[in-house]
Amino acid sequence: MILELLANAISTGVLLGCIYAALALGLAVSFGLLHIPNIAHPVFVVTGAFAATVFNAMGFDPLLVSLPLALVFYGAGIAFFEFYSRIYEKRGESDTMQALTLFFGVSLVIETVLVMQFGADQRSTDVDYVGQSLTLGPVVMPYRLLIPALVAPVMVTALWLYLKYTYAGIAIRAVAHDERALSVSGIDPGWIKRHAFGIAAATAAISGAALVIVGPIDPFAGRMQIGRAFAVVILAGMGSIPGTLAAGILIGVTEALVGAFGSPSWAPAVAFTMLLATLAFKPSGLFGAAR
Amino acid sequence: MPAVWRTAHGQGAPIRIGTTICKTGALSSTKSTLTGLELWRDDVNKAGGLLGRPVELVTYDDQSAVAQIPSLYSKLVDIDKVDVLISPYGAGLSAPLMPFVKQRDLFMIGMFALAGNDVTRHDKFFHSAPWGPESKTNWARGFFDVAKKNGCSRIAVLSADVEFAKTAAGGAEQIAGEYGMTVVYKQSYPPATNDFSSILRNIKAQTPDAVFVCSYPPDSTALVRGLSEVGIGDSVKLFGGAMVGTQYASLLGSLGPALNGIVSFALYAPEPTMANSEMTAFLSRYEKVAAEQGLDPLGFYIPPFAYVAGQLIAAAVTGAGSLDKAAMAKVLHETEVKTIAGPAKFNDIGDWTERRVLMVQFRDIKGKDVAQFRQAGRQVILDPPSLRSGDLVAPLTKARSS
Amino acid sequence: MSLRENAMDWAVRRTGRTPRATRSLVFALGCLAVLALGVVLTRMVDNPYVFFAGYVVIQYVALATGWNVLGGYAGYINFGPTAFYGVGVYMAAFLVKAMGAPLPVAIAAAGVAGALLGLAMGWMTLRVQGVYFAIATIALVVMAETVIHNIDYLGGASGLALMPPQAPAWAGGQPQFMLMVMLAIAVAFVALARWIEISAMGRGLRALKASEIAAECAGVPTFRLKLIACAVSGAMLAIAGAPYVYYASFIEPGTAFSLALSLNAIAMPLIGGKRSWVGPVIGALLLATVQQAASVTISSELNILVVGVVLILFVAVAPDGIVGIVEKLTRRRGA
What residues form the membrane-spanning segments (chain A) (predicted)? Predict the structure, then answer.
């Protein structure tokens, strides 16, 4: 019995952890690589989730429809980055605190617009596989978690390959490393950053669709996730894309174990404790280079 | 102070009724309160008002925030000089208001404030919702009456870390003890939990006969989904009880057939034992407004009792023949008021003397069309006995598969 | 003091034309005048709405001022002021429930608890970049709320109704008394903030805000200064929460850790101006008064939307807030 519970807690934890990683992936790009503390990212994800529900109501599968939506989000991300860099980055010395405040204001505006458009009620999607589960021996995995969870490894692998093997991807990593050196080599760092921020926003469309399959959401669902998403990125180590998946799973499994064997009431404290511990004892994270 | 406003509000000036509505914030799904009140106001004014004076509503948005309540109600009373108060939605928002109402000796109708007057014991406070006396422990007693009738002795109690749920869970334990049942599992979980698989497995391991669940809308959804996904075992005859959200169309529509077999509370269900022509007429008028304003399309839970609040005020004012608060309270204490939700009689602290909290079992739900919930037989009333429209189908696994 | 006078005073101070002692005397007299006005108000007005609404507005002055000690002077943004505020609320509630503690005891205990929490947070996160501190404070609110949910003695998620000790007879009633208490706290906070600003500590904080490395090289003990600012700010935020139990007689986590409170405590200094004590006061009075009026006229969604847009605008166009704008205008006129 204990073993069955343990196996199921771990499998659920892995699934939830994958979803956390998907939520945090865009942040791993914008915060980890570009050093832009985009605390509005979870709200972007929620916006993606709402977009998915709108198309789901017309009969589309939320995950499939999120792929074209990702393109829209990519464009919106680029436009938003343009706005952001105009008003603040070009002012001179990067003032992270100003940026934080700006994103804070942006997330308020997005949340409120969502409330005014959709109301504060819960919204959910209607997909066939919700309510069924995959049984592997003693382990039962609900498709409601399993299918969105698969999104994370796919996105992580795709992004990792992109950053590793394509020209633009290598340039993004170069921007993260040394912006000036990149401009010397004849590439416009501004374009590369816009492009990277666009990618970060695009992931929000897909992870938003994943999130709304897991359970109903409301316009304020992003708030619950801010701390957790940053915990994933920092625990992974700034900018480590595969590390995001590992860190997400680590947090997810710990939460599930606390929930199954301790008290579920304490689960929300898990991510926070791990975040603080990382900052206090290993600020470079698990997979990040020391900085 | 009364002398001042009497001159200002002479004959023919409107009778002002003040309340705050959760138009925004966490409780904004309760804003249909306003529609219920407005429908009542229109009815009363069409019929010539109260004491020959028209009725006017004065409402503010309390943002579902406790911190807003003292200043907004002080404004209603001291600046807007309203004649009658209606409480904000629920016990949490009403709690900071009760000492003020008692101290100033105001007349107030409670909106869903479960056990809202049990501590203050103000004699000019009346509930519009039929929670019944000693409601803190007793409002969900129906669940345990059904459990007892069906021979349940092992009880699991699961509750969200939210005010209403914790209160319900506390009462549940007490009643279980009183009925000689054993609480074999007791757990609370944080709001917005979206995976209940390990909790459900832990419950299953205890083989309870009944699971009393006190949950909020997002977790109600996740729990019902979890039931389909990991199951709960064959021992469970009765599952649910205090699942908030199962009263609203949005959740009913999104869960559809996954609700079958679950038992939850309601204040109105369109069963033959309960439906009456006035209620049906009210709901069909409400539906039209709801469709325009994007409110809950069914409106079984809140709007009728906002209308009841109005009917109670009307009965008190006309019975007293004035706006004298003591006389109004006397009327409600001594006479039975006919409302669209049935006859209301009150005890000394304004509870309905008869608890009319329904325990309904969801049955025969097919597809996700919300309109089916307007038909009889979908929410079968198991308790109270006076309104019973059917018997429990048990165990849960059977009720869900049928 | 009017806005203009304040700004002038500030401009003058920067050029150092009047001796500091005179200015401090004027400031102290101003504080006394505000307090006296408060006492007179509680005697003259008999409409309790004024006291309830006034309490909310003045509480924001205290919160904004407390937040600004760290956020404005040191430039470390605390996204979770309600974590500290909530600790103050619950500390007071605990003392009231356990021993019917009088208000001064509750305030002192809340201050100590807030300072310790500030120290702990600072110690764990301030050695790396400031952005980590900001992020950790976001998560701190969730943590604090989780802890409270798990303490049954304090009512957990259900909240707790308490009968706090009644106001002394001379105050003329609980709402009046609470207003005076909050006013005294706010005035004390503003005075403390001003003192920090003109003291060596303020200079050190400004130096580390401008460039942490340069300040370090110049011998400013940056880590220690940041820790002190963190503790002082934490104590102030917690103290601002302590009287709440006495004001509402009912507490619940949703109120003590409310997002609107956090949001306002951050927005007010940013809108007023972060660099001097005047900014948070102006921002708080302006925003809180508008919101008190707006909560009864326009929808609160629009209200939050306006705060969001105004925040973005100020960050984009006027990073030094209203004080910065006034300063720029007066300087241009003077030139």
Answer: 6-27, 39-58, 64-87, 99-120, 140-163, 196-217, 229-253, 265-281
Name chain C contacts of B71, Cβ cutoff 8 Å. 49, 52-53, 55-56, 292
Q: Are residues B243 and B326 in the same domain?
A: no
Chain segment B297-327, per-residue pLDDT in tens: 999 999 999 999 999 999 999 999 999 999 9
B382 and B244 within one domain: yes
d(CA B307, CA B314): 11
Same domain (yes/no): B371, B242: yes
Per residue in A217-228, pLDDT (tens digit) is 888 888 778 888
Considering A43-47, B198-202, C5-9, the range whose residues carry the highest mean pLDDT is A43-47
Least confident of A47-51, A230-234, B59-63, C123-127: C123-127
Reduced to 3 states, what is the DSSP secondary structure of residue C110? helix
Q: How far is CA C309 from CA A1, A113, C172, C314, in A?
A: 55, 11, 41, 9
* Domain count of the fold of chain B: 2
Is B128 found in the same domain as B152?
no
- For residues C48 and C60, give the distance between their C-alpha atoms in angstroms, rounded to a whole number: 19
| Of B67, A37, B192, residue with least CA distance to C264 | B67
A2-281 maps to CATH 1.10.3470: yes
Q: What is the pLDDT of residue C18?
A: 59
Residue A126: its chain B contacts at CB < 8 A?
Answer: 254, 368
Nearest CA in chain C to B67: C255
Which chain B residues have a beta carbon less than 8 Å from that of A133? Answer: 229-230
Average pLDDT over all residues of chain A: 87
State the CATH number of the domain containing residue B124: 3.40.50.2300
Q: Are residues B232 and B369 in the same domain?
A: yes
Is the bond preceding residue B395 a cis peptide, omega within 30 degrees?
A: yes
Interface contact flag, B72 C295, Cβ < 8 Å: yes
Q: Is there a contact between B201 and A142 if contact means CB atoms under 8 Å apart?
A: no
Per the CB < 8 Å rule, is A119 touching B294?
A: yes
For residue B361, give the DSSP letter: E
Is A94 in CB contact (< 8 Å) with chain C? no
pLDDT value at C109 more than 50: yes
Q: How many CA atoms lie within 13 A of B319 on its CB side?
A: 20
* Per-residue confidence band for B4, with pLDDT thresholds at 50, 70 and 90: very low
Whether residue A33 is predicted with pLDDT greater than 70 in this model: the reply is: yes
